[in-house]
Amino acid sequence: MTRDIKKAFQEATDFVDIIKQPVGEVSLDDRKAIATETVENFRDYINKGFLEYRKSVTEAGSFAVTEWTGQGSILVDALEREYIDILGGFGLYSYGIRHPKIVEAVKAQLDRSPQYSQEMLDPLRAKLARVIAHLTPGDIQYGFFANSGTEAVEGAMKLAKFYTGKKGFISMLKGFHGKTLGSLSLMGKNDYRAPLLPLLEGVRHVPFGDADAVEQELKNALAVGDDIAGVVAEPIQGEAGAIVPPDDYWPRLREICDKYGVLLIADEVQTGFGRTGEIFGVDHWDVTPDIMCFGKALGGGVVPMSGFFSTPKIWEVMEPNPFMHTTTTGGNPLACASALAALTVMHEEDLPRQAKEKGEYVKKRLNEMADTYPGIFDTISGRGLLIGMQFVSDEIGYAVASGLFARGVITAGTLTNAKCIRFEPALNIPYELLDEALNKMEDVIKTLPKN
Ligand SMILES: *Cc1c(COP(=O)(O)O)cnc(C)c1O
């Protein structure tokens, strides 16, 4: 790309003008031009690899589906095509898109102070920590805020190393904790790790849901003189396809970690804040971990936000030099305003209960479909509105995902990885939209060739 400073400024200026126009007033010609240019821009400036993987490009007809606006559980593209969102941004949109109360709080904070000076004490961050301390189980109390889920996990790993003076971790096969180098070390999938080895030293992986395997690994580590700082797991595995562990798993992890003097770290980035039908995933089993990681829905689907929290006893190691772990923008006032408003919405709308009831409703319908149309579904798993549909093959999964897309329903699922599709809508999605999405799914399934 040849350097053209004038053009850079001109294009930025033009686009800011479009952004500033009220959403309904941008002309159709401008929106078509944007849809066309966005594909080119992905191809030329982001990563052309994406274009082959997105249904919004490959299945959309003459104009790629270009995200424009949305409200609640409806996404609207630049050409005003509407989609029911049952992907929920992989757990980001627990409150729906642009929840009015969250947007209102963020706008108000934007007009007061969007970022911190870095020197004065910031009231929003302090308040949010206090609120989360009240909300979390057991003696979890102190927290640190960041912007992405992976940063929360990185922080949790550092805290565990500081506190225990040890270096290793045990994490779970198929687990997902983010893609920066530290979190990636915990990942339980070959594809993303292998090209980057060696990652952090001393990480061992065991099957998810098998507490004996964790204990065995801790015994092995002791026997050979390796040290383990912590055991890291998602309460319910999200990325792996909404995998629920046996009921005694988390209580046993708690016991085992206490017995061997290692920290229990719950990655609640996807399960936190109502998603699975309780405020936190660990609440299903009344377990208090030593460290909890949050992300995704924490920011209310408006501003990115994450954090990790722990107990006063463990947090003491952060006190002599609080600059051992810092971030310039983590926990900024906009993000905190968004999170505080999101928590009020979670409470007012009783989102954990909604997730629980709607999750049961959806699973019942999916199970009925699986009975009516055999040879399509392998398993249906999950809790609350973190639901995984495992199909018998990638082809069938992709046929379902693309058939839904053609009928105006957004799900994940790519050609190469469609065997498992998550059903993860906003927790306050109206039943009518759930029904519409499920009816369309049944519609698609009816058209599939019989095995
Ligand atoms: C999404 C996710 C992460 C990573 O969050 P990012 O914001 O994408 O970095 C970490 N852990 C779990 C359990 C997740 O689902």
Automatic annotation (TrEMBL):
Cofactor: pyridoxal 5'-phosphate
Keywords noted in UniProt: Aminotransferase, ATP-binding, Nucleotide-binding, Pyridoxal phosphate, Transferase
Superkingdom in the source lineage: Bacteria
Molecular function via GO: ATP binding; transaminase activity
Record Gene3D superfamilies: Aspartate Aminotransferase, domain 1 (3.90.1150.10), Type I PLP-dependent aspartate aminotransferase-like (Major domain) (3.40.640.10)
PROSITE patterns reported in the protein's UniProt record: AA_TRANSFER_CLASS_3
InterPro entries linked: Aminotrans_3 (IPR005814), Aminotrans_3_PPA_site (IPR049704), Class-III_PLP-dep_AT (IPR050103), PyrdxlP-dep_Trfase (IPR015424), PyrdxlP-dep_Trfase_major (IPR015421), PyrdxlP-dep_Trfase_small (IPR015422)
UniProt key word Lipid metabolism: no
Transferase as UniProt keyword: yes
Entry's transmembrane regions: none
SUPFAM superfamilies registered for this protein in UniProt: PLP-dependent transferases
Coiled-coil intervals, chain numbering: none
Family per similarity comment: Belongs to the class-III pyridoxal-phosphate-dependent aminotransferase family.
Protein name: Putrescine aminotransferase
Originating organism: Pseudodesulfovibrio sediminis
